[in-house]
Design goal:
heterodimer, A: ABC transporter involved in vitamin B12 uptake, BtuC, two-stranded antiparallel ribbon, about 70% helix, about 5% strand, B: alpha/beta, Rossmann fold, 7-stranded mixed sheet, 3-stranded parallel sheet, about 45% helix, globular
Amino acid sequence: MNEPKIAPQTLSEKTVKLKEGKNLELILGELSVPLFFTALCLLGIIAAGLNPRFLVNEIITRLARNSFLVLSLIIPVIAGLGLNFGIVIGAMSGQAALIIITHLEIGGLPGFFLAALISVPFSLIAGYLTGLVLNRAKGREMVTGYILGFFANGVYQLIFLVLVGTLIPMSNPKMMLSSGIGLRNTMDLIAVNKALDNALLSSLRLGPFKIPWATFLAIGLLCLFTAYFTKTKLGQQMRAVGQDMHIAAVSGINVDRIRLIAIMISTVLGAWGQLIYLQNIGTFNTYNSHEQVGMFSIAAILIGGASISKATIWNALIGVLLFHTLFVVSPLAGQRILGIPQVGEYFRSFLAYGVIAVALALHAWQTKKKAASRDKE
Amino acid sequence: MSKKVLILILAVVVVVALAAVYFTRTSVPEVATDATGFKIGIVTGTVSQNEDEYRGAEAAIAKYPDLIKHVTYPDNFMQEQETYIAQITGLAADPEVKAIIVNQAVPGTIAAVRRVRETRPEMIFIAGLPHEDPPLLEREVEVTLIPNQPERGKTIPQLAKKMGATALLHYSFPRHMSYAQLAERRDLMRAECEELGMEFVDVNAPDPMGEGGIPASQQFILEDVPRQVAKYGKDIALFSTNCAMQEPLIAAALQTGAIFPEQCCPSPTHGYPGALALEITDEIKGNFPAIMEAIDDKIVEAGRAGRFATWPVATGFLHSIGGVEVAKLALEGKLDLNDIDAVSEVISEVAETEIKMARLSDEGNFYMYIVDSHIFGE
């Protein structure tokens, strides 16, 4: 138990010293991204003049839909793998599981849990393979993961568009193309629609708002798990690997194995996150739904104040809140400020993508600053 | 350095805030309710992808200024489905909105419709050119308007033959071939080509939603058409299932002398103005007969008479303006949406040309139509 702790302790002492030595400026610097976005959101809300009920309802839905996915990014960050673009691969595993339960016509909560169960072996294997590749691309995990997502997309299309109906025997005219090969481009998830959202106390409303209690419970459990996990031996080893791979290796940690485990956990969580997301939406694009997850989850956690080397549960939750508030209000804000419908869309993409760039730039600036102040000491 | 950046951020925030407050005060007045007591929402793309839908909505607004609420869906609709759904539920949050036209009905429409129906079961939905699976969608929305894709699997080869083609080239990619009707159309095209004694060539192009994006697929078209023409001769007819590929396809056909029977979404404004460097002046804006004439002149000038054709109406434009018309009449109680002949009549009137409409199945009102083509220079 003791030996892996040596490395992190010395390092964290150093950061504490660093913090004490620094003033308000640094703290403000650390919070600058979320603060900046809070200001933008408030302005957006004022400018959009939205019906407050619609806004709150929309934000509750978005929080329930996306938090799990965003939380699944934390563990790889701790292990020093950066932001895991590979959750796209987890999402594909989740979708594969959903396709299976839709074919078997198992609906409701049992169907949802069965999908969660089925997705585990898929995502474990996919995560293991991803981890193997990322271990050969140390220091370039993010771009490698991003490109792996495209590669996996090709494999996914091959399986569901060509192999289903040829190599994989399946016949279901409702789900398959008329030629008998390949799946249709829309999957109807009516059977598991809101299965989790409505599983607990579905009639208990908070004022005029319908709350998906069970989904929030699942998110809460994942928060607890993440917090607990970082305190376990494995979690501490991950922290050590994340802070310095060489020191960790010297202290006897099997670095490659730890990194592999981190990616596998993240991939499984990504698959479950996608299940939660899709059961709320109620349909999915067989060949595209997964593309939505990587980029937006990462943008959300960055906006919440995380960086590629540091991410907390609060970063994830605040990030989802801010990012999605901005997404809800910005089209209408743009439209109302300028009075032309399509400008709303341009304004929104300008804001959404511009702010991701700003978030990354602010982080780069902070890292540089920290490095500079460390050099001074 | 850090202080400067902080000050800069604060300055930007203040400026944006002041601008927001200033503009919202003088912003567009709330849309007044029409005397009939309802409003119609319309969701289209922006002009970046395909201009027709947006301009159609503008034309509808010009026709009924106080009746319509217009919003747009994300350019990147494949990735930003949540925003798309929120735009539609946002429209439905206004209790005066009694009908919503979604054109094009990109993926996420079914989810959005179901969400709206949770609180507004009576809402009328009209979908233009749906991307989602027809048998699923037709049960969810009141009316769907779409060119008859399976039927076009026969009419396009016939038209190509009439224009003198000996082969038909079909550009597509796996994602589009997962659209049931597009795959069906390709199979029908192949069968029809065989019957007419033409060669059918199926070529896989890069997916514009893939890693290379739209530029990669357009580049591919520009490079591949000369190769194919060299191989099969000038009398090859070109067809592609993707909107972004139409402009390079027309440009390449113009250059190599190949035949171009129809776009994926037939319309005089789809691809032609860009490829022909056609100037859309104020006089011909929104005036389709005039635009057809202008294209005719350009094609004849380029010495390619009889090699290019399209429908005389812009389908995207028609879905927007026709959708509004149909919704308005239905809300006023003057039109039964289940009556295909009545709907067809309304749409024909808006299009100013005859439209042949067919129903997909009895499960819903999935209306597919065909318009006779116009060959330029004849």
